[in-house]
Amino acid sequence: MNDFLIGILGSLAASAILLVLGLLRGARPMWRLVAACSRLTKTGLGRVYLHQSSAERDLARDLEGARWVKVLAGRGNVLTREVFSPLWSAEAAPQSVQILLPDPGPREDSWLDRRSQEVSRFDPGFSLHLLRSQVRTNLDYVARVTQARDGVELRTFNLPNNCRVIATDRAAYLTFYSASAHGRNSPCLYARAPGILYTAALRQFDAAWAHATPALPTPLA
């Protein structure tokens, strides 16, 4: 029994060490070690990106051929970039795309405003209304997409704006926003299905989706 517990603790310690090394180095050989250790601990952790933005090439590949896609984002700029363009075309479209973005409407208990204040502490060009404006632009973009093709649902939420989740039926990209950096500069975890991290990412999304509000569509011009 003691040997079993020591083995489990050893695996967890090794996983933690490899995770730190992966964050420090971000090299592909290190990813293989992280993935091997994750199979022992059943976390499903496959890769660690130093910055969320450096994951976009792999994310684009995983989005191609996905049966469904779930996105929970703090701003949603990635939805308008090239990485997501295959989802908006009829040829490569998945069966279902669910998108959650923050509620940009004025309210006393706005978590979006809390994140704006947080970012403004390290980015002097980030005004209180800038994030709200950017979210509105991305909501408008996706709302128009929902009218142009089937299978896309858009909702808004007012919950702690502290992570981004992009998940498919095969994997999930999970970013925890730092209080001292933009999301694009925060580390991103790649979790394969099945696994503890993948399940946690889906639970995070589903909980937010259940308490979200359907976004009003913007009429096409």
Notes on the structure:
The chain is of the alpha+beta class. The protein is built from 7 helices and 8 strands; from the N terminus they run ααβαβαβααββββαβ. The protein has helices at 2-25, 28-41, 56-63, 85-88, 111-120, 130-148, 196-210; strands at residues 45-49, 68-72, 96-102, 152-157, 163-168, 171-176, 188-192, 213-214. Strand 5 and strand 6 form a beta hairpin. The protein is globular.
Strand order of the largest sheet: 1-7-6-5-2-3-4-8
Sum up the overall morphology in one term.
Answer: globular
- CATH topology of the largest domain, by name, is Endonuclease, Chain A
CATH superfamily of the largest domain: Endonuclease Chain A
Provide the residue-averaged pLDDT: 80
| Strand portion | 15-25%
End-to-end C-alpha gap: 68 Å
Number of domains: 2
| Biggest sheet details | 8 strands, mixed
- Name the structural class: alpha+beta
Helix-strand sequence: HHEHEHEHHEEEEHE
H/I helix tally: 7
Helix content: 40-55%
Number of strands: 8
CATH class of the largest domain: Alpha Beta
